[in-house]
Design goal:
With 800 residues, this protein is α+β, with helices and mostly antiparallel strands. The chain has 30 helices and 30 strands. The protein has 5 domains: 111 residues, 2-Layer Sandwich (Beta-Lactamase); 111 residues, 2-Layer Sandwich (Beta-Lactamase), CATH 3.30.450.20; 101 residues, Beta-Lactamase (2-Layer Sandwich), CATH 3.30.450.20; 162 residues, Reverse transcriptase/Diguanylate cyclase domain (Alpha-Beta Plaits), CATH 3.30.70.270; 237 residues, EAL domain (TIM Barrel). This is EAL domain-containing protein. It comes from Massilia suwonensis. Pfam families: EAL, GGDEF, PAS, PAS_9. InterPro entries: Biofilm_reg_signaling (IPR052155), EAL_dom (IPR001633), EAL_sf (IPR035919), GGDEF_dom (IPR000160), Nucleotide_cyclase (IPR029787), PAC (IPR001610), PAS (IPR000014), PAS-assoc_C (IPR000700).
């Protein structure tokens, strides 16, 4: 069969029964039947797929579907098949009846018809409804003459309403002039236009869209055919991008984004904070390699870490020094993170720069205050221990000697009593300067506490050299100190210990020097004593002390007191500290300082400590029976005690036996112990934490504990050193509380509550409270009391 001819006029008439009554030439050309062959035949005779016995069912079905186009297969006179669209339209008479039907054949094709012809014949109305955006046509008056379903959905208008709507009505008043001008340009100038505007729906909802249109000539008329695309998602993305850009610009930290170009990372973006921190403008740094600000010869290890991370496309955080544009150094806390594309490939790096120069300076200042005596500026106890350890390591490597000198001023208490504390402070400052002037720069002068000083003498070539240095020092101390036109006589007793003869560890050397100093002081003169083995011989008094300790528990001579710790805000008892006392049959009541050091040395401390824990748990059980379960008891333990294998299991067993919650008991260590046994303390802290107990640090500020180590130990509270509290002289002394204030700030920065102990004066109490010390302990609030009195203090939870 040849390609069907065009079907522009292929139409015929049917009567009410579906019988063909007319047949024009176009129908004959299309299907090959003459009018004589077609007229009076039923419509079913032309439809392939209609059974011969069909009595009009097919016709009635098509008639009922009038107004719609039906896809049908038509029979050709030569026996072939013609694919076409058939539309039936009833012709209504004046009385409303239908006598005639018009049948129109359109879009005729066969299997051989090219796709281009089929697509070209597709009605526009069939295409526009499947397009993703809106499709519309406007006449010159701006009214819609054609639109698709998406247009109805976005505008909210029905088909009837849309036909009566002008395009300008879909926009707000401010946008309408722009739309009108665009429509004018299309019709008058033949321009193609594309604009962004918000289409306002019938219910007021606004939809951002890109609208485009052009003029089309159609059957002698001109129309604007256009399309619209919803850009809500793009607008949201743009809004987020603008927000992120504003955030980058508003960030207080410097932000730099670099690309990757071989070994270099050229800068592509910097924010205003980067310009402020570095002094460089964006124009000056864009395109430069990001390493251009490196400080030559400084922090090479950190820069190597950055290089390795960039090569490996990994994140890294370092702190090093960079140079601003004016050449000034600044500490830069830099975090670098790779930026990946959709394929997981690193395309950029983003760096966040934080200027931590002020923080570094503040930390250095705090470290100096923590490691130095506030009054004299000398090294304090914790720095002394560190310098002594360094001196011993140096002596071990170089096979040389090191010396430790303990110096105790004679009759210093009389100076304070006779001339006042201000005079005592002047004496201490002058003595500090004289000591520093008598030694080399590599040696260390430290103030241990009160009027006690320590010298760490490094790399001593001979004992004679050491003796000459110490004698020069002693002579300088015999010179009087001038105060308020008065000369104050000053003398000192000196004890000397030398490595490796008198000890191989820092603790052994200090202990030996202390023994030698004690013997020098016993003479009552300004003497120098070198330690000797004879000094190790125990005296008869010491032997009697050992014997008494061996039987103190069985004789019932030990007893407990409990000192309240008072909440600085509420004034209520927040906890107790358990304090051991010995009612000696000959010497009366002895404080721990009189016998615990000896007990530590001979091992009795373990037995004493176990007894104290039992007593504290029994006291806590009594409190629990009174209904008081939120007032814990703190027990101070020594290294020898917690060094026992069964120490923590023993605590767990006691808590179970006495029916106590783990948080009712707190274990306290002196900071000096923490410094000397960091590994052992770390293990202890882990076991206590697992058991649920709180770890407390006593005498905080006298040692040189690493602050990060305290955080690692999960310390529950810090007790200020007695020295720090005693330094708070009075309310008018601006410098006296510097050490205490610094230590409190450090504790709070570590997020640990701080207890001020040994509070004896109102000035101390008020100072500590004003500077945020949470808990106070000392004789100003309450002396240590017996258990029954302690129970009364918390029985009714009345303010202490």
């Amino acid at each position: 069969m040849t390609l069907p001819v065009p079907t522009a006029n292929a139409a015929f008439l049917l009567d009410g029964a579906g019988i063909i009554t007319t047949w024009n030439n176009a129908c004959q050309k299309l299907l090959g039947f003459t009018p004589a062959e077609a007229i009076l035949q039923p419509l079913g005779a032309l439809l392939i797929g209609t059974a011969p016995e069909d009595s009009g069912e097919r016709w009635r079905g098509l008639a009922e579907n009038h107004g719609h186009t039906n896809r049908v297969l038509l029979r050709h006179a030569d026996g072939s098949t013609v694919k076409a669209e058939l539309a039936l339209s009833p012709q209504t008479q004046a009385d409303g009846s239908t006598q005639v039907w018009v049948a129109a054949i359109d879009n005729v094709h066969t299997d051989a018809t090219p796709d281009s012809v089929l697509v070209g014949r597709t009605p526009l109305a069939a295409v526009i409804d499947v397009l993703p955006g809106t499709v519309y046509a406007l006449n010159r008056e701006g009214r819609f003459v054609l639109w698709n379903r998406n247009h109805e959905r976005i505008t909210g208008y029905t088909a009837e309403e849309m036909g009566a709507t002008n395009a300008l009505e879909l926009f707000d008043l401010q946008t309408r002039p722009l739309i009108a001008e665009s429509i004018r340009r299309v019709f008058e100038n033949g321009e193609e236009v594309a604009i962004e505007a918000d289409v306002v729906a019938r219910n007021g909802r606004e939809t951002p869209m890109v609208l485009c249109g052009a003029r089309v000539d159609c059957n002698g008329g001109q129309y604007l055919f256009g399309m619209g695309v919803d850009i809500s998602a793009r607008r949201d993305q743009e809004r987020w991008l603008r927000l992120r850009e504003r955030a980058l610009h508003a960030a207080s930290n410097g932000i730099v984004i670099t690309g990757i170009d071989g070994r270099d990372c050229p800068i592509e973006y910097v924010n205003p904070a980067f310009e402020r921190i570095t002094g460089y403008s964006a124009e000056e740094v864009i395109g430069r390699d990001s390493r251009f600000m490196a400080a030559p010869g400084m922090d090479n290890n950190e820069r190597q870490r950055v290089h390795e991370a960039i090569v490996a496309h990994k994140s890294v955080n370092v702190v090093f020094r960079n140079m601003r544009k004016d050449g000034q150094l600044f500490w830069n806390d830099l975090s670098i993170t790779p930026v990946l594309d959709e394929h997981g490939t690193t395309t950029h790096f983003i760096g966040v720069i934080m200027d931590v120069t002020t923080s570094k300076q503040r930390t250095a200042h705090l470290e100096h205050e923590v490691n130095h005596d506030a009054l004299t500026g000398l090294a304090n106890r914790n720095l002394m221990w560190d310098r002594l350890e360094q001196a011993l390591h140096l002596s071990q490597r170089q096979k040389s000697m090191a010396g430790v000198v303990l110096i105790d001023l004679n009759n210093f208490k009389n100076i304070n009593d006779s001339y006042g504390h201000e005079a005592g402070d002047v004496v201490l400052k002058v003595v500090a300067r004289r000591l520093q002037a008598s030694v080399r720069d590599i040696d260390t002068v430290a103030r241990m506490s009160g009027d006690e000083f320590v010298l760490v003498l490094v790399n001593q070539p001979s004992l004679r050299f050491t003796l000459r240095m110490i004698e020069r020092l002693r002579q300088s101390l015999t010179q009087p100190v001038s105060f308020m036109h008065k000369n104050i006589e000053v003398g000192a007793s000196l004890g000397v210990a030398v490595y490796p003869h008198d000890g191989v560890t820092a603790a052994e050397l200090v202990r030996s020097a202390d023994v030698a100093m004690y013997h020098a002081k016993a003479t009552g003169r300004n003497e120098i004593y070198f330690f000797s083995n004879d000094m190790k011989t125990s005296s008869e008094a010491r032997q009697r002390l050992d014997y008494g300790m061996a039987h103190a528990i069985e004789r019932g001579e030990l007893f407990m007191l409990y000192q309240p710790c008072i909440d600085a805000r509420s004034g209520r008892v927040s906890s107790f500290e358990a304090l051991l006392r010995w009612r000696h049959p000959e010497q009366g009541v002895l404080l721990p300082s009189a016998f615990l050091s000896e007990a530590e040395e001979n091992g009795r401390i373990v037995e004493f400590g176990a007894w104290v824990l039992d007593q504290a748990c029994a006291f806590l059980r009594d409190l629990k029976q009174l209904g008081v379960t939120d007032v814990p008891v703190t027990v101070n333990v020594s290294a020898r005690e917690y060094g026992q294998q069964d120490f923590v299991p023993g605590i767990a067993a006691r808590l179970s036996a006495y029916g106590l919650a783990p948080d009712s008991l707190q274990i306290e260590l002196r900071e000096e112990t923490v410094i000397r046994n960091p590994g052992q303390v770390r293990d202890l802290a882990g076991q206590l934490r697992e058991l649920g107990l709180t770890l407390s640090i006593d005498e905080f500020g006298q040692g040189m504990t690493d602050l990060g180590f305290l955080r690692e130990l999960s310390v529950g509270q810090l007790k200020l050193s007695r020295e720090a509290v005693r330094s708070i002289a009075d309310e008018l002394d601006a410098e006296g509380g510097t050490m205490a204030r610094t230590l409190i700030d450090i504790g709070h920065n570590l997020r640990m509550p701080v207890i001020g102990e040994a509070v004896e004066t109102r000035a101390q109490r008020d100072f500590l409270t004003a500077h945020g010390c949470e808990v106070l302990q000392g004789i100003l609030m309450s002396e240590p009391v017996e258990p029954d009195i302690a129970r009364e203090l918390v029985r009714d939870r009345m303010p202490a």
